[in-house]
Amino acid sequence: MRIKSKNIPDYFEVRGEVYLSKEVFKQLNKEREAIGEETYANARNTASGTVKMQDSTEVARRKLNCYLYYLLGEKNDVETHSEAIKKLESWGLQISPTYRLCKNIDDVLTYIQEWEKKRLDLPLDTDGVVIKVNSLEQQERLGFTAKSPRWAISYKYKAESISTKLNAITYQVGRTGAVTPVAELEPVFLAGTTVKRASLHNANEIARLDLRIGDYVFVEKGGEIIPKVTGVDLVKRNPKNKSVQYITTCPECKSILIRKEGEANHYCLNEKGCPPQIKGKIEHFIQRKAMDIDSLGEQTIRQLFELGFVKSPADLFYLTKDQLLKLEKVKDKSAENMLAGIDQSKNQPFENVLFGIGIRYVGKTVAEKLARHFKNMDALANATYEQLLEAPEVGEKIAQSVVAFFKEKDNLIEIDRLKRAGLCFESTLKEPEKVSNVLEGKSFLISGVFQNYERDQLKDIIIAHGGKVLSSISGKLDFLIAGENMGPAKREKAEKLEIPIISESEFDVMLKK
Fold first, then answer.
1. Minimal CA–CA distance to 66: which of 13, 5, 14, 119?
2. DSSP state for residue 242 in the 8-state scheme
3. Confidence band (pLDDT; 50, 70, 90) for 4?
4. Is the pTM above the cut of 0.85?
């Protein structure tokens, strides 16, 4: 991007949002349809996934764009937000042309009303308007809450809702065996995209809506992104339509489904023989937070499984070049890159391996806690239920799951094969050096994005000062440290349990005390 002005400070910071235009998103899905691959769900998630990709050629091909909306720095010579925006424009940086300086609340309301329809013509999807205090001095005085600045507020437009026919309900099986019902809809154009499917979550939701095949249902997009069925148009209901009977057998392997007491989901327990569960476990194993095998992908895993080359994560480490060359569109260089990526993944630390093998209820944070506590795979595998409960973050459900996992003969064989392949089974995690006891006896949960800390850095600081870091909200939690973009569900649960929600700056004050 060419800078038009020479009058720029030596150091300044700009913030904005990366986006994938509706036009480019539509073209990407056309290309995927042409080669028989599953289309992307929405532009926002696709943009987020693209940013994380390591293949620079593919990232460039996707033509990401951005709008900048905030200028920071000590020598910018501006007193208002609008002046800062104009300065960014004068430097040749890309600003959304939709901004407007309003003199009073009537101007704001007029702007909101004007853009309710005009926003649909923008090159990206948006679900609202952000109203900001213009004076930077007033912004500084107003400061921040735990979740957001006090000098800005968002106005969300009512989600567009439309009625369409429910043609069928299909069922998807995830890697844990959870079965998710999906509404197959008469295609309808909604909030910028054509909607054909929407998740129905579980049997309880189907019963709550009293769904019947052939019904006309109301559909809207949560946050203008995820399609959801919100109700039934009873005026259009055919009285001959019969209530949906939830399936009793797995749609993939025909095993009997189980619904555990206290859980909303139905499960297929045939984890060793149900194809989507097997493929899902391998896809989980190669993801960025686990083994980070970027040279592989969902379609490659599908082909490897269908050809019988890979039926468990350990099989990946015994693949040959000849086998990879039998995949569609894979030539010598691609095969070599795949093998190199698989070999490189052997350098991933023990906690990543532990997360990757997919023990139920063992997420990334719990895997780190277990790795730090037990030091190696053998110690973890031989740990008793009581010993597991002594580890940080481990409750009865996790302890039972870990014990059950290591009792399975097939799982022990898989672990042995991974060990022989050369994966890391020893932890290199060390407790941060003790600095003080100022947080002794206090537990914290970290959520959101922070200005001055990485989340892992915050965890180490808490531990170094005698505190504990938890991975979920419960009555045991003392403080929730909230950054930007914290999930609303966590906030709601914390407020319900009357757990104090503190900001990054309030945490700093706590440390100093």
1. 14
2. P
3. low
4. no
Same domain, 92 and 169: no
- Structural domain count, the chain: 5
For residues 21 and 65, the answer to whether their CB atoms sit within 8 Å is yes
**Are residue 221 and residue 304 in the same domain, yes or no?**
no
Q: Quote the pLDDT of residue 507.
A: 92
Confidence bin at 6 (pLDDT 50/70/90):
low
| Higher-pLDDT residue of 413, 489 | 413
Same domain, 333 and 364: no
CATH number, domain at 35? 3.30.470.30
CA-to-CA separations, 328 to 53, 311, 321, 415, in angstroms, rounded = 22, 19, 14, 30
Nearest to 245 by CA among 267, 215, 197, 213: 213
My answer on whether 414 and 455 are in the same domain is no
**pLDDT tens digits along 72-129:** 877 778 899 999 999 999 888 999 999 999 999 999 999 999 998 898 889 988 888 9
Give the integer Cα–Cα distance in Å for 67 and 413.
51
What is the extent of the structural domain holding 393? 350-421
Torsion angle of the four alpha carbons 165, 169, 170, 171, in this order, in degrees rounded to the nearest 10: 140
Judge if 410 and 456 occupy the same domain.
Answer: no
Domain boundary, last residue among 314, 347, 380: 347
Are 339 and 286 found together in one domain?
yes
Greatest mean pLDDT among 40-54, 410-424, 452-466 lies in 410-424
Which neighbouring-strand residues pair with 198?
183
Strand-pair category, 216-222 with 257-258: unpaired
pLDDT at 1: 46
Task: Tell me whether residue 44 is in a domain.
Answer: yes
- Indicate the pairing of strand 226-232 with strand 479-482: unpaired
pLDDT value at residue 212? 96
Q: Is residue 428 part of a domain?
A: no
pLDDT at res. 294:
83
Mind listing the pLDDT tens digit for each residue in 176-206? Answer: 999 999 999 999 988 767 889 998 999 999 9
Q: Which residue has the tokens 């206290």?
A: 262
Residue 2 lies in a domain: no
- Do 314 and 354 reside in the same domain of the chain? no
341 with 354, same domain? no
- Ramachandran region, residue 109 (left: φ > 0; alpha: ψ -120 to 50; beta: rest): alpha
The rounded distance, in Å, linking the Cα atoms of 443 and 462 is: 9
CA-based Rg of the chain, rounded to a whole angstrom?
A: 26
Q: Is the pLDDT of residue 245 over 50?
A: yes
Count the residues in the chain: 513
CA atoms within 13 A on the CB side of 465: 17
Q: Is residue 427 part of a domain?
A: no
Cβ atoms 56, 39 nearer than 8 A: no
Please give the DSSP secondary-structure letter assigned to residue 39. Answer: P
Phi and psi at residue 264, to the nearest 5°: -85, -25
